[in-house]
Every structure is written in structure tokens, then in C-alpha cells.
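We emphasize that the prediction below concerns an isolated chain of 405 residues; any contacts that depend on oligomerization or on bound cofactors are therefore not represented. The input was used exactly as deposited, without trimming of termini.
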Amino acid sequence: MQTTLSEHARQLPRAEEAESILRTCVHCGFCNATCPTYQLLGDELDGPRGRIYLIKQVLEGNEVTQKTQQHLDRCLSCRNCETTCPSGVDYHNLLDIGRAVVDAAVPRSLGQRLLREGVRAVVPNPGLFKGLVSSGQIFRALLPNTLQVKLPRNVHPPKPRPTIRHTRHVLMLEGCVQPSLSPNTNAATARVLDRLGISVTPASEAGCCGAVDYHLDAQAAGLDRARRNIDAWWPSIENGAEAIVQTASGCGAFIKEYGHLLSNDPAYADKAKKVSALARDLVEVLRDEPLDKLGVESCQRLAFHCPCTLQHAQKLGGAVEAILTSPGFNLTAVPDSPLCCGSAGTYSITQPELPRQLRDNKLNALESGHPEVIVTANIGCQSHLDGAGRTPVRHWIELVEAALP
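Result of the prediction step, given as a C-alpha cell string:
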């Protein structure tokens, strides 16, 4: 795609990157065939090719409107288009660049500003979030349905974590909402890793990965969170931590971007690159270990929902399925498995209509094989799908841990 950036756009910190990405696109349109919002809305501007064209117009100095912002806002950032694209267009980074320019030019309504700032204040704050979830559970019957579906149906309390006793050790991102919505996930992870001779070293100073801020009009705040996490993890990294484990694939996808996003920060570029290299989804750690020694056996019938951040962003589609199949879990077939469930971080809050349609479509696919339980690898997807009140949805590691002898 030929493009000529405006003088203003050329002054942007990521101007050269944006121009390079734009010129990679060849207008083929294969991306639209796998775009969830294009499939629902049928509007070229609600597909990747159309959004790329909108960003091109913006960076070439054309008028930026609320309609431009709306079409970019509707993107789930699922990155299915990147998996499909034969030209290797780095769409998600172009979208981040474009959104920042558009959001700086187009003021949002008061309601949208309050919503986004409220989400940014609550979600990355585990203590505040836990308090609100606890209060919500008490007054659940009094809440509107839009809030009820965001609360967990069944909270499985965490079992005790093992003591730190092994020479091999890893860090683990505890997450923002997962300790409240699915508190047993990280505890189950620690117990499984302990059985494999790996201890989890706590890093209480580490907080939100930064994705919530970064994708809600506050990219600088998101990168500041990334820097704080790097500082919190660095002593353990220097002390030999093998990996930084994420049990939420959405967080993992963002942490693996630290090296790229902070590449121009002289104080953090090298450290960020190291952190991204050490960032590993839980399945990446387990698939390299002798899992047969765990003695896990189960014939439970499961459907696995592979989050977009696992299969498209981290390119780990099929990895969890292989681990679950080995000890005997009976995995059902899932039609249209590459399509997004509609959670997409905070998207289900800021764009409520489309996520409900996508969720119901995804559940119909997941339930087509009549599973006892649906399992996934991302807390956002887990909460979003389980909120429909249909087949229970859990993190896959909880099922593995429950099957330990």
C-alpha cells in the first residue's frame, strides 16, 4: 500500500513503524473473511482492511471524525486477521498507533470518559476490585443483569500453596481480576509446578501487566505499569528465575510486547527485552516438562476454548489441547475455533452489544459436543463465557490439578 505521511504524522514516535506496516498491506481482503466484527456487521470499515485504510487516511492528514474512532473502537484486537494475512501485516501495532492519534484528536463523550476512567481505576487494582466483587455477590439479586453477568457464578476457593523448596524457580504474574474471579487458578498452577520440581517465587510489587490502561486511551500509563513490573521482577531475574509465568494469556501476550513497546526507552529497553524473552504462558512451561510423572488420569469430557491471545497473539494454538489429551481428557470438537468469544479485555464493557452476540455464537460452538465443562486459558474469556449461565467455564490447569493422584 503506497502512503505519504503528513508532516504532523512524521513527527510521531512510531511514524516509521506505521509507514512500514501500511506498505506491507496488499489489499487482498483475506483478513475480512476471519474478522468477527466484519462477519457480524458486514461493513468494510468494520474489518481490518477498512480500518487500515482509515488509519492511512488519518496519518496522511485527512479529517479525523467520531466515525473513524467508532470503527477503530469496534475492533476486538483479536489478531485473527494476522493469522490469516499472507503478507504478515503487523495489524495490532498499527491499530495501537492509529488509535492513539485518533483519540488525541477526537474527544469522547462524558459518559465514555467516565466509563473508561472508571474501568482503569478499578480493574488494575486487585484490592478495590475484590471489594467490589464481594459486595456485588452480597447484593447480586439487586443488581441489573448487565452487572450480574460480570460476577462469578461459583468461586472455587484456593487451596494452600506449597512452600518454596526447589532450586528451580519461576515468577508468576498474579493478575488483577483473576485472584477475585478465579482464585484457585494460580494456586493450582503453583501446586502442579511444585510436583514438577519448580517453585513459584512471589513478587508482590508486580501489579497489572499494563494492558488495561494501554488499550483504554492511556498508553503512557500502561507503559509505566510495564516499567514497574520490570523493576519488581528484576531482582529475581538476576537471581536465576527461569521464566515469568502467566496463567492469563491476555496478560502474557502484552508482557511479550514489552521489549517492542519499550525499545526506544534507554533506561528500560534491554531489561524489557529480557522480560519479554522470559515471559511464558503456562502451557509453554508445562509442555517442556515430564508430565507423565504427574500421574494425571481423567476421561472427563471437555471443550477447550483457545483464547485469541493464545492462538493468534502467542501462536500457541493446539498446545493446551495436546497436554489435556495426553492424560485422557476427552476433548470435543469445536467448530470455528479461531473466532473470538467477544471478551477482548475490557471490550465487553465498552462495547456491550457485539460481545453478547459473539459470546452466544462461541458457546453454541463449544457446547455442540456436549462437554461437561468448558476450559480456557484466559480469565477474561472465562468470566465472559461463564456469565451466560450455561455450561460451567474453568481454567484448564484447575482440571489438571484436580486429577492429580
